[in-house]
Design a protein that fits this description.
FAD/NAD(P)-binding domain, 21 strands, binds flavin-adenine dinucleotide, single chain, 355 residues, alpha/beta, globular, 7-stranded mixed beta sheet
Length: 355
């Protein structure tokens, strides 16, 4: 694999777009990145100033980006990854146009649309700081690169909650995982535990069913997943269900070997052997970046108006990071489209004001 020198995306050198420059071959994710590279090489000034910066490349950010391009906006996308949470969905049965599609397949289609059909300037990295500036905002990435935009569209989604018990940090990726499908190969033929009682925990159990030898499903309270899913999981022959148990500790030596659990309101502890533990106890909105600038609700979500504007003029937000009802791909995508339209409206209004 090679890295696109413009956007940092990993590309396969056999299928990537190549260009030779000063005797060196470079590989690009798209014609757009190749053109940008050659242009910046000639004029020697990298582009850092935009009308709109979209932060986050999940369904909300990617849809906003496609809209921004079709609206011919001067826009830039900064994201840690392409796809966000949707990549972890093994079966999507509720996205229009597809009876059934996996998360990775849907995101491949989004990505193609974004960088081939509707190219947008983009970079794969993390935004670390946002600071208001004259006429807009300064955005700093983890490589300390600085960009300026008149408006921001925050689509940073959610990340999985930590269990916060001893052993969780020690065995990160040495047995402790948070439900990514790719991590399942680590526990092939082994005993595993899944922590959580909601839909994503029980979906995880169903996914592990043909991979792991035995699965212990542990939940502090009653299972809250849809009744049909609980029914299906309870019929699986290799699943032991521990309803009403707290996780006390994740134990092991170099890698994880087990989970210590305690029956709620008793001293009864049980140690369950597990080579891997998958923690699926909910998600929290990624707002740390922006919480100093805009209003959040008591769940930590960005409060948005019906046009995705926030309490700070020029900052728009969309998707799971907001208080919009319904955490779904189709909803995040719709909100991303709406936020891009609203940001364009705002920019045009500002331009008219400044005439
Ligand atoms: C296991 C699982 C299964 C699911 N199944 C379904 C399903 O079947 N159907 C359905 O409709 N929905 C499903 N969902 C929910 C759906 O995936 C989410 O509602 C949707 O992905 C939200 O999109 P988003 O763009 O708002 O946020 P996210 O998908 O969370 O994307 C956020 C993006 O922001 C980026 N980001 C965050 N912080 C920064 C930063 N500081 N700098 C740069 N980038 C940043 C992230 O890397 C990511 O790319 C599922 C979720 C999970 C976890």
């Amino acid at each position: 694999m090679k890295k696109d020198p413009v956007c940092n995306m990993e590309v396969d050198e056999n299928s990537a777009i190549a260009a030779e420059c000063d005797g060196v071959i470079h590989y690009f994710c798209s014609e757009g990145c190749k053109e940008r590279f050659l242009k910046e090489k000639t004029c020697k000034i990298p582009r850092t100033s935009y009308d709109l910066i979209i932060i986050g490349g999940g369904p909300a950010g990617l849809t906003a980006a496609v809209y921004a391009v079709t609206l011919r906006m001067n826009a830039f996308l900064i994201t840690r990854d392409l796809g966000g949470q949707a990549v972890d969905s093994t079966k999507i049965e509720n996205y229009m146009g597809y009876d059934f599609i996996t998360g990775p397949e849907l995101i491949d289609k989004f990505q193609y649309q974004l960088i081939h059909s509707n190219y947008i300037d983009h970079v794969m990295t993390e935004v670390e700081k946002i600071k208001p500036a004259e006429g807009g905002f300064n955005v700093t990435t983890s490589e300390l690169k600085k960009y300026f935009a008149k408006t921001l569209l925050v689509a940073t989604g959610m990340t999985r909650r930590r269990l916060k018990v001893p052993g969780e940090e020690t065995f990160q990726r040495k047995g402790v995982f948070y439900g990514n499908i790719q991590d399942m190969s680590f526990v092939y033929g082994e005993e595993v535990a899944v922590i959580g009682g909601g839909n994503s925990a029980l979906q995880m159990v169903e996914n592990l069913n043909n991979v792991a030898k035995k699965i212990s499903l542990i939940s502090t309270s009653k299972f809250t997943a849809d009744a049909v899913v609980v029914e299906r999981v309870s019929k699986l022959g290799n699943v032991a269900m521990f309803e009403g148990y707290n996780v006390v500790e994740l134990v092991g030596d170099i890698t994880l070997s087990g989970v210590s659990i305690r029956k709620v309101a008793t001293e009864n502890t049980v140690k369950i052997p597990a080579k891997g533990v998958f923690i699926a106890i909910g998600l929290q909105p990624n707002t740390a970046l922006i919480s100093h600038l805009i209003d959040l609700n008591d769940r930590g979500e960005i409060i948005i108006n019906s046009d995705c504007s926030t309490s700070h003029a020029g900052i728009f937000a969309a998707g799971d990071v907001t208080n919009a009802f319904g955490k779904r791909i189709v909803i995040a995508s719709g909100e991303g489209a709406k936020a891009a339209l609203a940001a364009r409206h705002y920019i045009l209004k500002q331009k008219r004001k400044n005439l």
